[in-house]
Automatic annotation (TrEMBL):
This is Adhesion G protein-coupled receptor L4. The gene is ADGRL4. The chain crosses the membrane at residues 374-394, 406-425, 437-464, 476-497, 512-535, 561-581, 587-608. Its main location: membrane. It is found in: Cell membrane. It is a multi-pass membrane protein. InterPro entries: AGRL2-4_GAIN_subdom_A, EGF, EGF-like_Ca-bd_dom, EGF-type_Asp/Asn_hydroxyl_site, EGF_Ca-bd_CS, GPCR_2-like_7TM, GPCR_2_secretin-like, GPCR_2_secretin-like_CS. Coiled coil: none annotated. CDD domains: EGF_CA.
Length: 631
């Protein structure tokens, strides 16, 4: 009897020693401490096998289970889990690329002909809508459509999800949020919407659209664009303050405006993408005293033109615009605008203007581009020699060479930035900086051209001036006045520096006149100075050398006039003429005369100058290869 308590105690000790007490023993990373059947111990996580203390190995679900993913699917083992993917020709019943079988997902055959069967299409649409309808948040709904349409689309998918977007467009305008968060939520919704619509119209989907008949293709594409207009307009109406919103993707761009009646006369809705421009003009009213607001939404579709073609093979149509057969084609990008105002009479249209860029490159444009590049490279070399000449030859230093030096420096920097940066439009900020630098350096070059004209006028007239005072004012005018113009322009319209095509000033809202205006004024001043100088020189030459024939006198003046044309920048008048009346002749005259301006300045100021020839002779007289040509 006395041994009984000892046996009971020993038995209890044995029972306690069997489970591994995880209070004193650490569990493996893939295990956790649990109490099971009244005993505490380390147990491996789901997907792992072992005792939890010394070993927890990953289970190979794909190898341990027979057909773990079911038919028409491949199984891939991962650490602690696995996933299934349907084989080509099949898709998951949940429309998810990866799935596991315990959620009831199976692989079903893709019906390649479903888009031809109205009953099949209707069933597919209803099934998708049933799945989508419980999602009430606009952003979540769009993200769901985006995930299911981001790749491997079929004609059935395109038709189905366009119907989903069309039915969901009223819901997208519903924002259940406080006023302070509505603007941010509207921004997010518009961004997601543009991304989603882009999935259906980017060029990668053309092979899928090509499987639809012409009528079906046009019908569903029109429905998509109509749904996009409705949705973007509804979402834009949720903004709580005057807003301009931009969203861009590879083939779709959106620009939305929202404003109240007070700001209406200050807002000019427009859109400019890749040279395609649209602007709306409301009817002018005597007063904007009625309360209300308006929303305007522009949508730009870069590549949908071929989708509207009457050709049965739009893939061939999208690659060529030279088809000789008579058929309906859209050979441009598509821009749409939708407007809503409250009350409806608050914002009524008077007219709309469109400007569309050429789809194919123009032969003359390509030639002019090559001439510009060649001319600028030659001009840069010549301007560099001019800068060296005017800077380091002490014997020729004067007020005139100081002006030449500053003109050449600014023209050199302007043309260098133009050559390396005019087409670097991939980064908006960098492109804006390039445009700002071009604006400043070209205006500075024009300012010093103006100083050239003023100084020549003073010499011809014979005005006696204080050299130091004149130099100071020349520097102020040559560098400070362009800085004031650029600073003022940037403060009013910094967004207009850099366009989608080139890093230059935008033509929107006539912003380009911040350069054209000062340039035209300087050209006008220099033209007047040019005419006066030529007149005075001609009369002076005729009076001093009466024995010289009139022909020789005219030829001498013409030579000087030609030099002044390039020095004073008056050849830029060809650019003004081209803007007023565009023609091939004015385009070539402007390009040749100004791309090679640096070369002409070098010829007239250095090569043909006797004094500078002597300086070069002294510099190179001990160089055998150069001595003969410089004598």
């Amino acid at each position: 009897m006395r041994l009984l308590p000892l046996l009971v105690g020993f038995s209890t000790l044995l029972n306690c020693a069997c489970p591994q007490n995880c209070t004193n023993t650490a569990c493996l990373p893939n295990a956790k401490c649990e109490i099971r059947n009244g005993a505490e111990g380390c147990y491996c996580n789901m997907g792992f096998s072992g005792n939890g203390v010394s070993i927890c190995e990953d289970d190979n679900e794909c190898g341990n289970l027979t057909q773990s993913c079911g038919e028409h699917a491949n199984c891939t083992n991962t650490e602690g889990s696995y996933y299934c993917m349907c084989v080509p020709g099949f898709k998951s019943s949940s429309n998810q690329e990866r799935f596991i079988t315990n959620d009831g997902t199976i692989c079903i055959e893709v019906n390649a002909e479903c888009h031809l069967d109205n009953v099949c299409i209707a069933a597919n649409i209803n099934k998708t809508l049933t799945k989508i309808r419980p999602i009430k948040e606009p952003v979540a709904l769009l993200q769901e459509v985006y995930r299911n349409s981001v790749k491997d689309l079929s004609p059935t998918d395109i038709i189905t999800y366009i119907e989903v977007l069309a039915e969901s467009s009223p819901l997208l305008g519903y924002v259940n949020s406080t006023n302070s968060a509505m603007d941010a939520l509207s921004n997010s919704t518009l961004t997601e919407f543009v991304k989603t619509v882009n999935n259906f119209v980017q060029k990668d989907t053309f092979i899928v659209w090509n499987k639809l008949s012409v009528n079906r293709r046009r019908t569903h594409l029109t429905k998509l664009m109509h749904a996009a207009e409705q949705a973007t307009l509804r979402i834009s109406q949720n903004f709580q303050k005057t807003t301009q919103f931009d969203a861009n993707s590879s083939d779709v761009a959106l620009k939305a405006f929202f404003f109240d009646s007070y700001h209406m006369k200050h807002i000019h809705p427009h859109m400019n993408v890749d040279g395609d421009y649209i602007k709306i003009f409301p009817k002018r009213k005597s007063a904007y005293d009625s309360d209300g607001n308006a929303a305007v939404a522009f949508l730009y579709y870069k590549s949908v033109g071929p989708l509207f073609s009457s050709s049965d093979n739009l893939l061939l149509e999208s690659q060529s615009h030279d088809n000789s057969e008579e058929e309906e084609r859209v050979i441009s990008s598509v821009i749409s605008v939708s407007i809503s105002s409250n009350p409806p009479t608050l914002y009524e249209l008077e007219k709309i203007t469109f400007t569309l860029s050429h789809i194919k490159g123009i032969k003359d444009y390509n030639i002019l581009t090559r001439i510009t590049q060649l001319g600028i490279i030659i001009s840069l070399i010549c301007l560099a020699i001019c800068i060296f000449t005017f800077w380091f030859f002490s014997e020729i230093q004067s007020t005139r060479t100081t002006i030449h030096k500053n003109l050449c420096c600014n023209l050199f920097l302007a043309e260098l930035v133009f050559l390396v940066g005019i087409n670097t439009n991939t980064n908006k900020l960098f492109c804006s900086i390039i445009a700002g630098l071009l604006h400043y350096f070209f205006l500075a070059a024009f300012a010093w051209m103006c100083i050239e004209g003023i100084h020549l006028y003073l010499i011809v007239v014979g005005v006696i001036y204080n050299k130091g005072f004149l130099h100071k004012n020349f520097y102020i005018f040559g560098y400070l006045s362009p800085a004031v113009v650029v600073g003022f322009s940037a403060s009013l319209g910094y967004r207009y520096y850099g366009t989608t095509k080139v890093c230059w000033l935008s033509t929107e809202n006539n912003f380009i006149w911040s350069f054209i205006g000062p340039a035209c004024l300087i050209i006008l001043v220099n033209l007047l100075a040019f005419g006066f100088i030529i007149y005075k020189v001609f009369r002076h030459t005729a009076g001093v050398k009466p024995g010289v024939s009139c022909y020789e006198n005219i030829r001498s003046c013409a030579r000087g006039a030609l030099a002044l044309l390039f020095l004073l920048g008056t050849t830029w008048i060809f650019g003004v003429l081209h803007v007023v009346h565009a023609s091939v002749v004015t385009a070539y005259l402007f390009t040749v005369s100004n791309a090679f301006q640096g070369m002409f300045i070098f010829l007239f100021l250095c090569v043909l100058s006797r004094k500078i020839q002597e300086e070069y002779y002294r510099l190179f007289k001990n160089v055998p290869c150069c001595f003969g040509c410089l004598r």
